Amino acid sequence: MIMPKIRVRVDEDLCIGAASCVTIAPETFQLNEDNKAWVLDHGEEPGGSTYERWLEVTEDEKENILLGAQSCPTLAIFIYEEDGTQIFPEM
Amino acid sequence: MRYVIVGGGVAGTTAAEELRKLDPESEITLICEEQHPLYSRVLLGVYVQGKVPRERTFLKKESWYEEKKIEWLRGVHVDALDTQNKFVALSDGRELSYDKLLISSGKEVRTVEYDQRGVMYFRTIDDADHIIQLLAEQGKDACGGIYGGGFIACEFLNIYEAHNIRTVLTFRGEHFWNSNLLPEAGELLLNHFRSKGVDVIAHAELKGLVGDKELEGFVTEQGEHPCTMLGIGVGILSDFSWLEEAGVKIGVGVKADKFLQTSVADVYVAGDISEFEDVYVGREMNVGTWLNAIMQGRVVAKNMTGEPTVFELVSSYAMNVLGIDIIFVGDVAKSEADDVHLVGSVRSGGVTQVFERGGRVVGGVMINRNTDRKVITDAVKSGMPVSDVLNKINT
């Protein structure tokens, strides 16, 4: 099965710790000591904590991460396709 | 199936979106009092601070409603509900029938009895535009007053700071959030505001305004406080009259069970206006947060389409005010707690309050202790013993 690859980025200046992404997609987002969301890879942090990383996900996982991004009240979560196209927020 | 949604904020719009997914062939009507497509109230403060452009606050485009085949009625509100014949009467004279009705009409600002150009409220994007207009007009001559001791007062503190405006802060109680905070937490916050140059006046009751055409100040028992702008944040309220007349059970909000179903068949509720059975904290809660509204919007849509789904969420609200992080999690009403435990201190610069009821942790307030958030959120969910939670966050 070919897994879609996406890049997920949290804009740390915009993130206010509303925790909607964490509630919807806890495997991908977790709040840190600054009350901002790190991006996780299936609950893990290979290479350390970061606000941006590539993820290999199933279609269902991708859909859920998108829902997490859509639920952010400050639109602080950006999602890109493998070819670099921004899929959220829609341009 | 015909769904009618009263209120186009985040709860109602999320429900509409979810209903469209779950029931592609249904008719969906969204009744909105405001003229704008969905925007983020959470972003309005950042917009007024000048950190994001106005268009960034919108979460839906005007074309979205049509794309999703959602009938979008703007600038109207509901005057009456007939639960027998299942229709709502709109302010423009129309009557809309429904199979399932969602009440998500939110809350409005509580106003004070005095008014003058320069008096500001902060709830809608129109309010935000009004503040920006005043800021632009007044420029360097602006002098900021605040009346209130909650999250809206915090928004005004941030706005004034971002525009380098001298600030006098007045509120009625001993400190901020008098029904939630212990004296130590209150003191920590006020010390912080003072350290940022804010003139802080507690136990203040607004007695009047100064100025003829333009605002020149406001009056409390403590005296006259010069200002050219006065931000008011004294709470929110709902108009329940049309619901009460229809026989819908009302408490501090529209009463609902854990499925967000009201006391009347086929009538549901979501968002700020709901008073729902909170399965985690074990009492009925009325919560006015983004997270609660969006999650209730998703869950209520499932229940409206006949997929029984319990609403389960540890709600939270977080804000950074003048550089200090404040987080509320779960049930933070002092009056409802058996005990409120204090961790940290004013001296250490961080305080956490743990709310206990019936031997369980039901909520927490964190000021500059962000890492306690996860422990407390998990504890509210899992029912972890209070002593374990205190041990965990004390280390």
Automatic annotation (TrEMBL), chain A:
Query: What molecular functions are annotated in GO for this chain?
Result: electron transfer activity; iron ion binding; iron-sulfur cluster binding
The record ties this protein, via SUPFAM superfamilies, to: 4Fe-4S ferredoxins
Q: Which domain of life is it from?
A: Bacteria
According to its UniProt record, what is one Pfam family this protein matches? Answer: Fer4_15
**All copies of domain 4Fe-4S ferredoxin-type, residue ranges:** 6-34
What are the protein's UniProt keywords? Electron transport, Iron, Iron-sulfur, Metal-binding, Transport
List residues traversing the bilayer. none
Q: Does the keyword Iron apply?
A: yes
Role: Ferredoxins are iron-sulfur proteins that transfer electrons in a wide variety of metabolic reactions.
Q: What is this protein called?
A: Ferredoxin
What is the organism of origin for this protein? Answer: Candidatus Uhrbacteria bacterium CG_4_9_14_3_um_filter_50_9
